[in-house]
Amino acid sequence: MVQRRWFDVVVTLVFVAVATLEARAPHSNGGGRPPAKSPLSWLAPYREPAARLIGEAVGSTFAWQRLALLTDSVGNRLSGSPALDRAIQWSIDEMKRDGLENVHAERVVVPKWVRGTESAEIIEPAPHSLVMLGLGDSVGTPPEGIQAEVLTIHGFDELDARSGQVAGRIVFYNVPFTSYGDTVRFRASGPSRAARYGAVAMLVRSVGPEGLRTPHTGALQYASDAPKIPAAAISTEDADRIQRMSDRGSRVVVRLKMDAHFEADAESANVVGEIRGRERPDEVVVVSGHLDSWDVGAGASDDGGGCIVTWEALRLMKKINLRPRRTVRVVLFTNEENGGRGGMAYRDLHRGELEKHVLMLESDGGVFRPLGFGFTGNDAARQTVRLVATLLSGIAADQITGSGGGADIGPSVQEAHLPSMSLEVDGGRYFLIHHTPADTVDKIDAVEMAKCAAAVAVMAYVVADLPHRLGE
Ligand SMILES: [Zn+2]
Q1: Which of 259, 287, 262, 263 has the alpha carbon at shortest distance from 273?
Q2: What is the pLDDT of residues 417-439, one digit of tens each?
Q3: Is 336 a residue of the active site?
Q4: Which residues make beta-bridge pairs with 204?
Q5: Which member of 94, 336, 337, 362 is catalytic?
Q6: Alpha-carbon distance 123 to 101, whole Å?
Q7: Which of 16, 32, 249, 354 is at 20 to 30 A from 266, Cα to Cα?
Q8: Residues 48-72 pLDDT 10s
Q9: Whose CA is closest to 396, among 357, 422, 369?
Q10: What is the pTM of this model?
Q11: Which residues surround ligand 1, an ion (CB under 5 A)?
């Protein structure tokens, strides 16, 4: 009866938290627009359904088990792969089994990049194999590979300063990870910047903190005005070894072999399921993740988990018979990793109803211990979601921070200027496993994941049910 005890604890915590808030409410309006009447007059009726949603979520390991089933039975899911097709069909079947409404696939044509076999090795000053992963969307090498001396550099300024030494070399960006935003640019635009000076290939220190000799893949972006050269990420340990060799003044020679190439575009789909609104079904709250992943690991944290916890919001509502005023729609996007065509296709297909989208939420930062949500929207909407989030204080997921959004909801949000939200979690472990063979379900804790599902469920349900439209 462990489950039952969990439920009681959570219900108690939620009630205590809301009671505390009520006591403080007259002084806690902050700088936002003062609501016409006490905000708690609309908030109070949501205490009970919120507690039930949380209890239902944390009372089982259903979300984790479903993610384990997806990642064990399908595995990773690169755009255009048969595995992604299987995941799409499985999601449709399972959503129907959950009793979701209007379950269907929305066709998207996606690029199909194929890694093929690949390897890299140090030839001089001493032979060592390198633990590597070709970067997504990279071109391949000739069959015999590319063998050249390595030029180790530590930033774009140094690349420009040493541009005269680049021609005919393999440029190696050895920039230690600080944050993803800071470091990812060497992976993304490093190949073309080196190619403009005549580099024949590019290596990058994996964009992630220290790992256990784990390479991190991810997309590159070729510029239109530079030759396309093959590019790969190597593990931080291998990066350090090349650095030591360079520091000793050794001539370092690497041979890189990659079969990577594009095949013809492929059919794929976004998967959609709904709980139709009981009063205003044409107004929609979207919750989402992306079903595609890189072709290594199992795509558990990126982003199978985001798909499952947002889908859980609808399953949980259905399970305890909650039907909000407005429609809640889950979208499992395709092709986030190397094209973004799922997000663009959603915007194009739903253009006529985007203005009826009340809120779009995406979970694509892992499903570790939830902290709350990032939010972008007007002050009135922010005030409202802050109050809704207080219903999550019992599971410590009540923060509403700076800005929120996601790669897949981005095109729709920008087109129609919609309020947008991202699930925020304790992300300390996320970039250790991001885009690596180690992105597997065992890194995810079932209780933390259940809390993520609970947080999304409560936020989506209350925003979809509000007496007033969010932001008005
Ligand atoms: Zn992702």
Answers
A1: 287
A2: 999 999 999 988 899 999 999 99
A3: yes
A4: 173, 233
A5: 336
A6: 59
A7: 354
A8: 999 999 999 999 999 999 999 999 9
A9: 369
A10: 0.91
A11: 302-303, 364
